[in-house]
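Haloacid dehalogenase: structure, please.
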Amino acid sequence: MIVTFDLFSALTDSRTGASRVLADLAATRGWAQSGEELYDRWDGHNKALQRTAVAPTTFHDVSLEALSRAWHELGHDPSYVAGDLALLEESVADWPLWPDVAAGVAGVAAEHRVGLLSNVDDALARRTRAHALVDPDLVLTSQRLGAYKPSREIYTRAAAVAAPDRLVHVAASARDVRGALEAGLATVRLARPGHVVDETGPRPPVEVTDAAALAEAVAGV
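Here you go.
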């Protein structure tokens, strides 16, 4: 069995990591918004744009357009956008993992091959703390697979890479849980703060609140 993890919801506390950087920018420039408010505005545009993104559009391209839209809405100088995104991308190396991740992923890796399934570019995935916890050959990015969550294609292409092994995906966000289930993947939901299940979509058959429970959970899917 191969088990993939979502990178920026299930494993990484991306809101905390990025908000710290954005809070420093806001303080330096005298902006009224908090780091969390800036992140949420950017993240909302990111997710919306990923719904329609297709190759060869990169995650960097999407993130740049999302930040441009966010700063425009907030009345911030558009000349900041490229430099601010570069700073955010560089800071990814410092974004924290959720506290239960290292031990939880190791527990799954003791029995199965583990990887990532994420809407990022390869270089950005390598920069994250989670990258060191998984098999580098199983870092399945939108760049590698040519598709973005929550489209069906990214999940079916990931399953094809895993074949003949069975693929189980560990997701946290509403769109990732729904996308994986609707694509027919065996899915375990790892509940994280700030993420809920899509009430209009299929319900995850297995849900855990601590990564320590994942080894048992994926074995039973």
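Notes: The radius of gyration is 17 Å.
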